[in-house]
Amino acid sequence: MSWQQIPIKRLQHDGCLYLKFAKRENKTILAQCYQAPPLRASRALYLNSADPSEATVYMVETSGGLVAGDQNNFEIDIEEGANVCLIPQSATKIYPAFNGEWSTQCINISIGSKASLAWKTEALIPFRKAKYRGETVVHMARDASFLWGEILSPGREKRGEIFEYSNVKSNFQVWMEGECLIYDSLLFSPDHMDLGQSGMLEEHLYIGSIWFVTPALQNMNIRKLNEGLQQFCDMKVCASILDGKVANVRWLASDLVLLKKEMNNTWNKFISYKD
């Protein structure tokens, strides 16, 4: 019997990070912070010269990744008028599920009137035999802004682990005062589906997504944005506007460095609309 077949008994780690932001005079402050290992948050930093009132907080996963059976919970509450940028310190790594259990991450976000949240892009990296499920639910006011980026990796590409995970399930929802703007549900099971077929990933390895919701979206020229994105023959990308309220850009790529560069360029374009 190999060590991978030996029954594993371990304590489950349920991390929790609760952050509440509020506007005080002309500044956003971190009004409340509760953190349970392995999740941690930095103090509020003021790094945005274009918006000195914006609070930037780095989020840290001190255990290095999610082990099978672990669950991380994020609760983010942004009060009226507050401007926040949240930055994951590193990619989210999902370790193998040798005990058959799922690794879980839940994110609940509330954004008040005239408030904004930018959640910077990082990658999810499921290791060989990993099982991951994630759910993100955002509730926001009609005059609030929300910018979100994410990347799904095929695994540890440099180690030759490409689509060797068991399952990755994600559900992403954005609600505006009771109206569902976004319901994006993804399931990848490489053992049970051909990810290389037409309409799936084809020859690509990475999926990148940016979602943007803001009242200023009506001023966006989606045709011009699409023309600016179509620059690389080995990368597929398309931008769309949903019901005049949500902008979405989704990439299929095989070069992670190039994908991050392109996503960062698009991110900066969207930030200019928010300002």
UniProtKB/TrEMBL annotation:
Keywords: Chaperone, Cytoplasm, Nickel insertion. One of its GO terms (cellular component) is cytoplasm. One of its GO terms (molecular function) is nickel cation binding. Signal peptide: none annotated. It is found in: Cytoplasm. Required for maturation of urease via the functional incorporation of the urease nickel metallocenter. UreD, UreF and UreG form a complex that acts as a GTP-hydrolysis-dependent molecular chaperone, activating the urease apoprotein by helping to assemble the nickel containing metallocenter of UreC. The UreE protein probably delivers the nickel. This is Urease accessory protein UreD.
